[in-house]
Amino acid sequence: MAESRSTGTFTGAVVIVTGGGSGIGAATAHRFGAEGATVVIAGRTQEKLDKVAADAPAGSTIVTRVADTSDEQAVTSLVEDVVAEHGRLDTLVNNAAVAEPGTVADIDGDTWRRIMATDVDGVFYASKAALPHLRTSGGSIVNVGSVSGLGGDWGMAAYNAAKGAVTNLTNAMALDHAGEGVRVNAVHPSLTATDMSAGIRSDDDTMAAFRRRIPMGRPAEPAEVADVIAFLASHDARFVNGAHIPVDGGLGASNGQPNMG
Q: What residue stretches are annotated with the Ketoreductase domain (predicted)?
């Protein structure tokens, strides 16, 4: 069971977390749930969502919903159903993402479109559906980007492009909707200990290279990213808008250069 750190910060709030079946999404759901929010986690696999709900801190309210964020109608129905059932929406966390390796020279068109559909279209669909309700609540959107969207890396052309789009979409929404009382921010993790990165983390040579590049010498834990997401959604961040916060162990400070220490 996840560690409870209940403070009641989000008591009465309603939060949607896409990609909530594992990794950063699961940790984020647990964090909001421990602090009193009603959390609706969306994902493609009911079994994964059920496990996240079962493992939540005691007293959490976690509701599961199967939805493919690349499907506009499914995402719109998700948001409308949540508001109909719970009466409001305070925070949308756009976390759902997929990643596959490949350069522009060797990636195929179907893979490119699949990554864009989930990683970019899904953010657009969910945000569009949520905005009318967030205007009413004075809520916020937190997008889960990536350091790969702040600067390119090798062999991940589609993922780099998708997360770069999320970066600038965050900027556009922060500018367009601040006057309506809606804040939009993003977190940008580096390598994180999730199912998505399991292949990378199982390769000793690759992990040795990452440890040299990341000054703190290790991947992030999902809960460490969730902590920053919760801050951005909280009252403590009430004047934070259009921010891009790397959760990268100092990788950005080193400009991606190897740690020579």
A: 13-203
Nearest partner of 59 among 87, 78, 75, 36, judged by Cα: 36
159 belongs to the catalytic site: yes
Q: Is the pLDDT of residue 117 over 70?
A: yes
- In angstroms and rounded to an integer, the radius of gyration of the C-alpha atoms of the chain is 18
Domains detected in the chain: 14-193+221-246 (3.40.50.720)
Taking only the tens place, the pLDDT of each residue in 170-216 is 999 999 999 999 999 999 998 887 777 656 656 666 657 667 778 88
As a three-state string, the secondary structure of 97-137 is CCCCCECCCCCCHHHHHHHHHHHHHHHHHHHHHHHHHHHHH
3-state class (DSSP) for residue 25: helix
